Amino acid sequence: MSKKTVISMAVIRRLPKYYRYLGELLRNDIERISSKELSERIGFTASQIRQDLNNFGDFGQQGYGYNVRALRDEIGKILGLNKEYKTVIVGAGNIGQAVANYTNFEKLGFHLIGIFDRNPKLIGMGIRDIEVQDVDNLESFLKNNPADIGIICVPKEQAQRIADAFVKSGIKGIWNFAPTDIAVPEDVIVENVHLSESLLTLSYRLNESELFKEKIGR
Ligand code: NAI
């Protein structure tokens, strides 16, 4: 990651989980929740939740707990969800199409405005209501249609080249699906997505008892 954060990344990475759980509570018409009950649902201790939220203000009330809607709105604001973002995808293969087709991102305020690829077979194809364009048009497109977030879904050998084009076009946030570290200037933020890391964590956990057989007495 390029830019340093004021709040620790561990706290920041928990915020989307709070946001999601609070959204679920609202969908179940739960408007108020004690910190104990919230902690049981989310799986963090009540003091962890209090500490996390204290970084941003004073949210709960002694003896009342949390107002679910107000807390969700506040966390939404902290996550920047009170704004709208324009996104472009480069690489219209498996991952690019999957991301493009996931319409829930739109509901959160992330609006896909362009998809690019270099494969003539894909150029001109429609994904949702967006036509895949030749990647050679990327920079001129971004000049006329500035975007906030660039999404990299190309093979790793091509990722830096696409990141450079994004940076040159003024994009400040890059969501990188390619399994490689990309170099960007200080003021550009890269968030890497690694499904395989999550899968390997799962396989570790499936096998952990084998590794520590003696310690856990099995
Ligand atoms: P894919 O081969 O289906 O799609 C890649 C697309 O990128 C192709 O359509 C290709 O024509 C296009 N492309 C290649 N170079 C380009 C360039 N310079 N400009 C524009 N388009 C270009 O591959 P897939 O499965 O969608 O994977 C894409 C990337 O995502 C790969 O780097 C892969 O390793 C990564 N990946 C990451 C995962 C994760 O957890 N983050 C999971 C699976 C894949």
TrEMBL record:
The lineage of its organism: Bacteria, Bacillati, Bacillota, Clostridia, Eubacteriales. NCBIfam families: PRK05472.1-3, PRK05472.1-4, PRK05472.2-2, PRK05472.2-3, PRK05472.2-4, PRK05472.2-5. The keyword Magnesium does not apply. It comes from Caloramator mitchellensis. Keywords: Cytoplasm, DNA-binding, NAD, Repressor, Transcription, Transcription regulation. Homodimer. The gene is rex. This is Redox-sensing transcriptional repressor Rex. NAD(+) binds at G91, A92, G93, N94, I95, G96. Belongs to the transcriptional regulatory Rex family. HAMAP family: Rex. Residues 17-56 bind DNA.
